[in-house]
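tool_log.txt
---
The assistant was asked to compare two proteins side by side. It first ran the structure predictor on the initial sequence, then on the second. Raw inputs and outputs are pasted verbatim so the downstream comparison step can read them without reformatting.
(1)
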Amino acid sequence: MCDEFIHPGLVTDSRLSRRSFAAMTVATAGISSTALAQTNGIGANVVEKDVEVKTADGTCDAVLFHPAGKGSWPAVLVWPDIMGLRPAFRDIGRRLAGQGYVVLVPNPFYRSAHAPVIGENFDFSNPEQRTRLTGYRAAMTDDGIDHDAVAYLAFLDTQPQASKTRKAGVQGYCMGGALSFRTAAAVSGRIAAVGSFHGGNGLVTKNPNSPHLLIPKTNASFLVCQAQNDDTQQPQMKDDLKAAFVAANRPATVDVYQANHGWCVKGGAVYNEAEAERAWTALSQLYKTSLA
């Protein structure tokens, strides 16, 4: 769920100023640029490149990351939250690549706008600003999301750095949690691991397209990290998810973290570094065991 109560305060990132973002775009547009990714004190050379992915509905702007040097690594798709592809999600992609993955972070709203879709200060409590984002999300139909997922994994498969083991991961934040469930069902032959972070109450609904109903169509292990305020609003959801995983015989961990919706993404008022790092450690372990 993404509303003014779940996302309090401003989401800020000075890198989204016109001048800073223009400089960053020039640095990565159309060329491979090698950056030093610092992840918990561990440096790793990572290649970062802005790319375009052809989909059934058009062309998606995205960013691709992979370790520098020769080799091949498992593929991972990252679905951003409702504020879309922005520097905070480039940081996530860069960090993952530094750990040994080929990572694609798409602009989920490419049908409506080029990334980034917010500026350096976004107030989620502002109805006008919030309505614009929810309108972008409404343009993403279930069929469209499924087709996008297929296109994104096909694009990753064309990358020479991507491992040919056929095992890939997908992770999502906020609305991206539900999109990750859909991806695991739409590309079930590829996705072996799913991470959902503060996916909100949209993971279990009474609608026939509820993401939890897709679990039997997947072949993945799951990590579901829920926010404490999401759990307060819908405490039964974690039990419904656990029951669905058991019924489908899918390995899964479902935990409620001591942090609020949005806690994993830097720049938000609710960012919680300690709990974000705990979630990252759990994700790293999931990928280590599932994508080998």
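(2)
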Amino acid sequence: MTRHLIILFSLICFSFVDKPRDKDKEQFVEIRGKKQYYLSKGNGEPVIFFITGLGPTMDDFEAIQNKLSKTNRVICYDRAGIGKSESFNNERNLENISLELKELVDKIGLDKPFILVGHSRGGPIARYFVSKYPEKVSGLLLIDPAIPEYRWKKRELRTDKEKIEFDNYYNSFCSDSTKYTATIRNESKHTSTTDSSSVYGLGFPLNIPITLIASNQITIDKYSKEEIKIKVELLNSYFKINPRIKLILTDKSGHYIYDTEPELVINEIVSIVNKIKTSGK
């Protein structure tokens, strides 16, 4: 009798205890013998997958990921050689990075199309990935995406003396081992060279929602106003490729829009989610 009462008491007490929540899946997967680090939060479809810019780890998106994970599953990762991910002994061009991303996606079992969110160099990576694996992507959000030809157009504005300083600044990302890791130097090299030819002519898919959020903030730099004009012209040229693209320009933020205007980024991601759900894809 006493034993039965103990069992009954235990069952009653257990029923009033909250079940432990699923912990964030922060883990490694192995790709070609190298550990690659990723984090998965929340539940719900479509999944939202984040790609960082040149150098930062996946923690860069933490604030907006935390909010979005309340309604959707969000995934972020450290590219090879960045943060906790081991590096590969290969060129850090768009082809290799996209192939590695595809292997990561397959390893973690993403079998339905997902939304890609890319910042800075994450923009060209996202564009290249969706061109290679269109069946994997249901929506695209690019946050102040890198435009390979933009750098060279900015260079043309400067005097010969200023061009030397301009080149030295950008070349330091490729050569200064005291400040930048081998991976960052390698990625930076391709940002200045092969990215342009890899992205040129890719276009944008016509069958998925695509939004670009870009900064048109003018700074005190004497070339800022002209540079922004060039940038906006380049972004507007995308409408010739895909007139359905949604372009949002903000003068309230610099390059890191998701830090200064997180709600803007979140709202646009939610808008893409809703469009996907409405379309039934």
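---
observation on (2): The longest strand covers residues 34-41. The radius of gyration is 22 Å.
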